[in-house]
Write a structure and sequence with these properties.
Belongs to the calycin superfamily. Fatty-acid binding protein (FABP) family. The chain has about 130 residues and is mainly beta. The chain is about 15% helix and about 55% strand. It has one domain: Beta Barrel (Lipocalin), CATH 2.40.128. The chain has a 10-stranded antiparallel sheet with strand order 4-3-2-1-10-9-8-7-6-5. The two termini are about 20 Å apart. Bound molecules: decanoic acid (DKA). Decanoic acid binds next to helix 2 and strand 9.
């Protein structure tokens, strides 16, 4: 259920994110900022099933609103214009972004009360861990 993701999450660790950003084509300057930034992720869902993922940081705040399984247009923090669809697969919230013939996925799951985010581009995987804010 998407409800288990609802709340405010604070990033506490990030592994291999520079390689992931390189793999999706993020330039040097934005990667420098991306590597230093510790975003908060706000997840909410309304009574009609509209899900909102808001990533807040000193670098940039981005927000997407969508219904599960329904494709939508997304502008990412690094300014890619993607066709995105989010699905729920065995408890994992899977955000697939397609642009310029490429595809990446951002997979989120709750493990031991933490929100684990895996950013996958081909063989390259970054793992970012978020904990719930009190
Ligand atoms: C996350 O939610 C991962 C978000 C992936 C963003 C990719 C582009 C970042 C460019 C600074 O932690």
């Amino acid at each position: 259920m998407v409800e288990s993701f609802v709340g405010t999450w604070k990033m506490v660790s990030s592994e291999n994110f520079d390689d992931y950003m390189k793999a999706i084509g993020v330039g040097f300057t934005t990667r420098q900022v991306g590597n230093r930034t510790k975003p908060n992720l706000l997840v909410s869902v309304d009574s009609e099933g509209n899900v909102c993922l808001k990533s807040q940081s000193t670098f940039k705040t981005t927000e997407v609103k969508f219904k599960l399984n329904e494709p939508f247009d997304e502008t990412t923090a690094d300014d890619r214009k993607t066709k995105t669809v989010v699905t729920l697969e065995n408890g994992k919230l899977v955000q697939k972004q397609s642009w310029d013939g490429k595809e990446t996925s951002i997979e989120r799951e709750i493990t031991d009360g933490k929100l684990i985010t895996r950013c996958v581009m081909g063989e390259v995987v970054a793992v970012r861990t978020y904990v719930k804010e009190a």
